Amino acid sequence: MATLTMELTLIFDLILLFTLISMAWLLLASTDLFRAVVLFIAFGLLLSLAWVRLGAADVALAEAAIGAGITGALLLVGLGRLGSAERCRFTRVPLTFLQRLSAPLLIGIMIPSITLILVLELRLLADVAPGQQGLVNALLDISGSGHGVTAVLMNFRAWDTLLEKGVLLLALITIWSLDQARPLVHEDEISPQLTGLARLLLPIVIIVAGFVLWQGAHAPGGAFQAGALLSAGILLATLVGYTLPARRQRLSLRLLLTAGFWVFLLIAATTLLTSGYPLSYPQPLAGGLILLIELVATASIATILAAVVVGGHPPDNLSVPEDDSSASPKKRRK
Amino acid sequence: MTDLYLGVALFLLLTIAIGLVRVLRGPTATDRMLAAQLFGTTAVAILLLLGQASGNSAIWDVALIFALLTAVAAVTFVRRKDVDTATETKT
Amino acid sequence: MLLSDLLTALLLFCSLPFFLAGTLGLLRFPDLYCRLHALTKADNLGLGLVVLALMIQADSWQVVIRLLLTWLLILVAGATVAHLIARKAQQDGHQPWRH
Per-residue pLDDT averaged across A90-117, rounded? Predict the structure, then answer.
């Protein structure tokens, strides 16, 4: 029955591919921004499916958390800030015949030719491209992690991961320099079901994020996926009305945001000083160092991504009240 | 059994593709969001089946994350500042 | 064929019409509120049947618990989200469809 399985997977992949490309086209060509955003969220979901089909569960986890979750929330919040629904709809500009012809012509020529080239090239490749799998597996024992992807991310290519954390911070700094944080949501009263749901989901999100982080040591998972999931949880809390107490919105917040990068940088500097190569973990400490970096990075990534969705720096004129009553989350009840 | 899982997953993928029509037609923003919810639930079913078919339990983790995130996306939709007025959208 | 395999196949086949009904309802029902019904009830039940089918195939009780918890999470989140969406739609002024 092997061939039936192959046929089924082939049909599955083809339908997935066709749906993905159609969705991408539709969302880019949509005259309604909201429709484009929802298509984008669905696109993220299907793309995550595609990653699963490609055997990259780590990327699928990240894509689900970020593409469908955080970016979807980001776009929805952004749309809400644009104003009324009417402002998010465009009317098509009338095109000349030549303009109308150019797109199908271009695509009609490009896509078949690119497909043809790819198919011809693919036939030259071996059945399964080995990639770096063998090398990674050979060095897995000394890497400090039991999972290939984590070993590559946190040890063999740790420099890239360090720079990624820096890039995230830069993005946040850019966003913060543009505007002050505005209220994310309606000022309406919140349905009790919503607060109940948030109370149910938040502990689950935290536990699952911890689980994903821990799993990264021997199975798909890791700091980034856990951080992205945790940021969805933070976002959920923000939507339900929890705000950070004023006392914590200055130094504590900034420490939390930058901690991941600092710890990583500190370890890089220390290893540079002691052994001449940055990020060359001493063999017995490798596992512990990776865990430490991942722990702090998860917290930082979660906060950074949530702050990106909030979309502005904390207000400058925060007054810290004398008593500590602002430490409790603010909730609205009417 | 693997073929059975794959077959059902294929069917579910087709229902997702069909459900796209609702995202495209609307007419209201809420209708589109409903379709996104549908995709989330169906995608969880597909992932569970794919995970069982390939024996890879990490895929089930992805399914769990889908479940959580679909809920968060819906909460974001409900709590955003925009008011959804029902008007026709021209494709 | 083992009995468990037969049962799994049966449950999976039973779940198909539910998913189909959910999607068709989403497409064919006249109104936002009706579509919510199709979505939350049909799809979650279809998912429940799939989960049941996979539970039969499970190797250990941990797998069973894991599947069950995933399904329960979706059930609870789905039901609450349906209520929230309907509430927001009503606040925005959507009138239910009348025959």
Answer: 81
> What pLDDT digit, counting tens, does each position of C38-92 carry?
888 999 999 999 999 999 988 888 889 999 999 999 999 999 999 999 988 888 8
Percent of chain B residues past pLDDT 70, beyond the cut: 88
Range of the domain at A36: 1-92
Structural domain total, chain A? 2
| Among the partner residues C77, C83, C87, nearest to A201 by beta-carbon distance | C77
Q: What is the mean pLDDT of chain B?
A: 85
C10 interface with A at CB cutoff 8 Å:
no
Q: Are residues A87 and A151 in the same domain?
A: no
CA distance B27 to chain C (A): 9
| Whether residue A33 has pLDDT greater than 90 | no
> Which of C24, C45, C57, C85 to mutate to test binding with chain B, by most B CBs within 10 Å of its CB?
C85
Three-class HEC string of chain C: CCHHHHHHHHHHHHHHHHHHHHHHHHHHCCCHHHHHHHHHHHHHHHHHHHHHHHHHCCCCHHHHHHHHHHHHHHHHHHHHHHHHHHHHHHHHCCCCCCC
A150 and A75 within one domain = no
Do the Cβ atoms of A34 and B36 come within 8 Å?
Answer: no
Which residues contact residue C59 at a Cβ distance below 8 angstroms, ignoring those fewer than 6 apart? none
From C1, which residue of chain B is nearest by alpha-carbon distance? B1
Considering only CB atoms, A52 lies closest to which of B20, B62, B76, namely B62
Token look-up 């209520």 returns C83
Residues of A in contact with B10 (CB under 8 A): 8, 11-12, 15
Task: Tell me, yes or no, whether A99 lies in a domain.
Answer: no
- The pLDDT assigned to B90 comes to 31
Q: Which residue of A has its CA nearest to B36?
A: A42
Crossing angle (nearest 10°) for helices B2-25 and B29-54? 170
State the pTM of this model: 0.87
A150/A73 same-domain check: no
| Interface predicted TM-score (ipTM) of this complex, two decimals | 0.90
DSSP-derived secondary structure for chain B: -HHHHHHHHHHHHHHHHHHHHHHHH-SSHHHHHHHHHHHHHHHHHHHHHHHHHHT-THHHHHHHHHHHHHHHHHHHHHHSS----------
Instruction: Please write the tens of the pLDDT for every residue from A269-315.
Output: 988 888 888 888 887 888 888 888 999 999 999 999 999 988 888 87
Q: Across the interface, do B66 and A9 touch by the CB < 8 Å criterion?
A: no
What's the pLDDT at A60?
A: 93
A68 with A144, same domain: the answer is no
